[in-house]
Amino acid sequence: MHAVKPKSRSSALIVMGFLWMLGQIWPATALAKEPVSFKEDIFPIIQIRCPECHLPAGEGYKKSGLDLRSYEGLMKGTKFGPVVVPGDAFTSNLNVLIEGRASKEIQMPQHMKKLTSCDLDLFRRWVNQGAKNN
Ligand code: HEC
Fold first, then answer.
1. What is the structure's pLDDT at 24?
2. Residue-wise pLDDT tens digits, 59-84
3. From CA 121, how far away is CA 134, in angstroms rounded?
4. Which residue out of 63, 66, 84 has the highest number of ligand 1 atoms within 8 Å of its CB and is therefore the one to mutate?
5. Can you tell me which atom of ligand 1 is nearest the CA of 80?
6. At a CB cut-off of 8 Å and minimum separation 6, what does 88 contact?
7. Under 8 Å between Cβ of 87 and 128
8. 123: closest CA among 76, 73, 85, 80?
9. Where does residue 33 rank: exposed (0-12), middle (13-18), buried (19+ CB within 10 A)?
């Protein structure tokens, strides 16, 4: 029996590590290009998680003016201006708030369970793909 030499064992580990990394990156980049639909992917999430506060009678609407009953309402934004910057999820307030990148106090949905990481990923990709009414 030959013992595996430490050197070849470590290069095998490097190769395995590299393959593992490829496995992590490859599906993520393939997925990022997959088109996200407002009607099929985004709006159903909004309809479940947001209207109780973002209809005209709701607290979120009263405080911010954001009406989440339609694409037009979302794109119009708050009384202070748009919350979606098409093509830029990093600076879009919508993404900042649902991802909890602002203060916990204004994480959306406010004081409720955060959206799942899958949902957050869909919102991010939808905005980065141009926030279209598709
Ligand atoms: C339990 C109530 C509630 C729910 C549910 C809720 N919001 Fe809000 N939302 C608020 C309130 C209240 C404000 C105003 C916050 C403030 O200005 O203090 C607000 C403000 C906002 C703003 C604007 C913040 C700004 O001024 O820039 C965005 C964007 C927003 N909500 C997105 C969402 C989204 C998307 C959902 C669903 C995923 C959601 N909210 C669900 C209560 C809620």
1. 72
2. 999 999 999 999 999 999 999 999 99
3. 17
4. 66
5. 26
6. 127, 128
7. yes
8. 85
9. exposed
